[in-house]
């Protein structure tokens, strides 16, 4: 920890220019190495696994709820997935991983409620490591934040996740990297201008890893951190939505600022009547309508009616689900048995990176691909309807497929 701090300080102290680029790159590589050592099971005490955290995967896709204590994660799970996860006003109410299942657009989505994490979680504080280890297995994260708490909490959570090799809302760097047994460092690029790295800084980084023979091809203007991520090789790239919760506690003007932050969905899981200055807001509403114009007024009107309806406990969950659907990038494929209508009630759900006809067959039955002759496909992935396709054909959302066997 001390070494990490010392390197971080040195990076902060060092001026950033062409002359110091190699030195900075070397420091960043050292930092990444020490951080990795810290995360090895034997180094910081206790492995990532723990009792109550080994929840088996089920459903088509997995969402994890990450956040500080008492931001409303359990309340959110209970609201979304219809299972009960204990929620209370004290911190660390949840101690293990609680799964629930939500069905949306025919997909079965596993949602995991997790204990709250605190700053320093990745270094072994609290149950942080177990929590972040589970987070690495998720296909989408809800980073739940309490709107009444300081906004830096967002940055702190991001840092904890980053420190554990999770990259949020980012695609893997477009870098080709192969270790070789001889031939030195072969550096090349297809990018017209590199502003963060060059042959020397790449060599400096690789020296830190004692790699002397490798092929490096930068296909984008990558940073030193991007390149280190590729060399380290154990990073996971996960989309995330920031759920700003307890929106019932803030004013409309504040809400308007929150919605401008990228990847944010404001929500409210419970309505606490006592803490809510509703009456003055209702009086102000007609005035506001005149001031902010029709489009915004609609959104606010929705908020008002939601909050005024007795017993209504959720606000803006529709937007949360729609955005989640977009971020999960799932593809629904309908099966059409020969001579029958397609089954539109039970789509086969494929992930967007694995959506060929072969993937479709495999998710129906393990042996189907061996009997496969060709497929008839109706939908936007084809020019003709139906079109005869082979097993490598890439399917699109809402295609209809009939498999013809040998
Ligand atoms: N006002 C308001 N209170 C909420 C909302 N959602 C949750 N709460 C309250 O916040 C408190 C904490 O909720 P939990 O669901 O237990 O929070 P958690 O994040 O699971 O907490 P830990 O498991 O302890 O980390 C409870 O008293 C909830 O009733 C909301 O949208 N608005
Ligand atoms: K709590
Ligand atoms: Mg909880």
Automatic annotation (TrEMBL):
This is Developmentally-regulated GTP-binding protein 1. The keyword Iron does not apply. Pfam families: MMR_HSR1, MMR_HSR1_Xtn, TGS. GO terms for molecular function: GTP binding; GTPase activity. Keywords: GTP-binding, Nucleotide-binding. Residues 329-405 form the TGS domain. CDD domains: DRG, TGS_DRG1. InterPro entries: Beta-grasp_dom_sf, DRG, G_OBG, GTP-bd, GTP-binding_2, GTP1-OBG_CS, P-loop_NTPase, Small_GTP-bd. PROSITE patterns: G_OBG (PS51710), GTP1_OBG (PS00905), TGS (PS51880). Residues 61-287 form the OBG-type G domain. The keyword Ion transport does not apply.
């Amino acid at each position: 920890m001390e070494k990490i701090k010392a390197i971080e300080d040195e990076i902060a102290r060092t001026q950033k220019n062409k002359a110091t680029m190699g030195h900075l790159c070397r420091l960043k590589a050292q930092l990444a190495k020490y951080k990795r050592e810290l995360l090895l099971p034997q180094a910081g005490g206790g492995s990532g696994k723990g009792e109550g955290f080994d929840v088996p995967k089920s459903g088509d896709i997995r969402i994890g709820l990450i956040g500080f204590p008492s931001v409303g994660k359990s309340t959110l799970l209970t609201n979304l997935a219809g299972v009960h996860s204990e929620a209370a006003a004290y911190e660390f109410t949840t101690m293990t991983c609680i799964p629930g299942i939500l069905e949306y657009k025919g997909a079965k989505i596993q949602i995991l409620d997790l204990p709250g994490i605190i700053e320093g979680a990745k270094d072994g504080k609290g149950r942080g490591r177990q929590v972040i280890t589970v987070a690495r297995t998720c296909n989408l994260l809800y980073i739940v934040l309490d709107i009444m708490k300081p906004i830096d909490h967002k940055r702190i959570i991001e840092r904890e996740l980053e420190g554990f090799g999770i990259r949020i809302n980012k695609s893997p760097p477009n870098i080709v990297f192969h270790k070789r047994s001889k031939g030195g460092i072969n550096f090349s690029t297809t990018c017209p201008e590199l502003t963060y790295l060059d042959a020397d800084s790449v060599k400096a980084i690789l020296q830190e890893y004692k790699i002397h023979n490798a092929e490096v091809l930068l296909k984008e203007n990558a940073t030193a951190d991007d390149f280190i991520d590729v060399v380290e090789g154990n990073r996971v790239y996960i989309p995330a939505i920031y759920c700003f919760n307890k929106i019932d506690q803030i004013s409309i003007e504040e809400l308007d600022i929150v919605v401008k932050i990228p990847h944010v969905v404001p929500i409210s899981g419970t309505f606490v009547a006592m803490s809510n200055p509703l009456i003055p807001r209702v009086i102000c509403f007609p005035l506001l309508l005149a001031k902010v114009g029709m489009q915004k007024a609609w959104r606010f009107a929705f908020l008002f009616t939601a909050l005024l309806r007795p017993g209504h406990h959720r606000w803006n969950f529709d937007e949360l689900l729609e955005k989640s659907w977009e971020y999960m990038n799932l593809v629904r494929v309908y099966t059409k048995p020969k001579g029958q209508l397609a089954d539109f009630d039970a789509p086969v759900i494929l992930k967007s990176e694995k959506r060929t006809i072969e993937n479709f067959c495999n998710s129906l039955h393990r042996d189907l691909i061996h009997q496969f002759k060709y497929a008839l496909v109706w939908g936007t992935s084809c020019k003709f309807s139906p079109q005869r396709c082979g097993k490598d054909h890439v399917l699109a959302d809402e295609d209809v497929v009939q498999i013809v066997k040998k």
